[in-house]
Amino acid sequence: MFAEAIEQILKRECTPAAVRAMEAGGSPKALWTAIADAGFLEILTPEADGGAGLPLNEFYPVLTTLGRYAMPLPLAQSIAARALMTGSEAPAGMLTLAPALRRSAAGIICPFVPCGRLADYVLAEDGDDLLLLPGAGATRVASGVRASLVATLTWPVNQVGQRLPGRAGTLAAFGAALHAAQLAGAMQKAFDMTLQYANDRRQFGKSIGKFQAIQHQISEMAEHVVAASIAAEAAFQANDLMPARLPSAIAKSRASEAVVPVASIAHAVHGAIGVTEEYDLQLFTRRMHEWRFAHGSESCWNEVIGRAVLASDLPAISDFVRMASS
């Protein structure tokens, strides 16, 4: 229900032209206002705190829908941040989640923050606490990648922020799971575009999808998309407000790992048209590469999974997989 409702807004306000405009520095007001006014920012917040109390398994299709539209705003992060701040008043505006926070003589630094170019606030883990920092007081340095929304934010040493005591430990896993789910949606969209193009594009008197070499590539692409989707969905099956750390690690690892083959095959099948700026495929493959590294790439989370395997007393890896998936 929520996924279908938000898709109606995205069809109207998050068109490829709108995404391009926002990446180029255009105003996100129309898209953000439409979503905020419809009440989607509080769908994960418990009902006792004025939200919809949406279960995690119903939140997953919302996230994949965002991925299928190459969402350029930190909508998923804003929903998650408000859930993480349950019991405290969340500010109006766009919130994003910081993958890391460190303090130095230069001040408070949050490197490579997803949607850091646009966010009004950044929620980060600071020791045992969560710390909400205003984007207005930060110096923002873009990642340097063309049209990327990622930025490193630095605040003065004396920046205080809003401290939420004892709430650390969930943000990293939540950020990883959110991006795994959006990756699943973006990869599905890229696959659909590739399959359609292979059926439509004709060469030597027949569609290129009839050639065995193309069929092999599309089959491999489909395997990666399905595997990433299954892993991502599994992270949202807990009867809890937040995804658990180990399923989130597996989800982000598998989804991030799939990005390179999925994007490569999509562009290979499309040929020259697939790399042009005018064609929409690049909106999704660029976002996939950006989300691959958001809140840890596959190598980061593989280490978490490996340590969990070594620490378990289960007799076989298949037992560990069943335990992690339950």
Core attributes:
single chain, 326 residues, alpha+beta, 4-stranded antiparallel beta sheet
Overall mean pLDDT: 94
Overall, the morphology is globular
Spatial order of strands in the largest sheet? 1-4-5-8
Proportion of residues in helical segments: 40-55%
3D architecture notes:
By secondary structure, this protein is α+β, with helices and mostly antiparallel strands. 51% of the residues lie in helices and 13% in strands. The chain has eleven helices and ten strands. Strands 1-4-5-8 form a four-stranded mixed β-sheet. A hairpin with a 2-residue loop joins β2 and β3. The longest helix has 30 residues. The radius of gyration is 20 Å and the shape is globular.
Give a short summary of the structure.
The protein is of the alpha+beta class and 326 residues long. The protein is built from eleven helices and ten strands.
Please render the helix and strand layout as text.
Layout: H1 2-13, H2 16-23, H3 29-37, H4 56-68, H5 75-84, E1 95-97, E2 102-104, E3 107-113, E4 121-126, E5 129-134, E6 139-142, E7 151-155, E8 162-164, H6 171-200, E9 202-203, E10 206-207, H7 212-234, H8 245-270, H9 281-293, H10 298-311, H11 317-325
Parallel strand pairs: 1-4
Antiparallel strand pairs: 2-3, 3-7, 4-5, 5-8, 6-7, 9-10
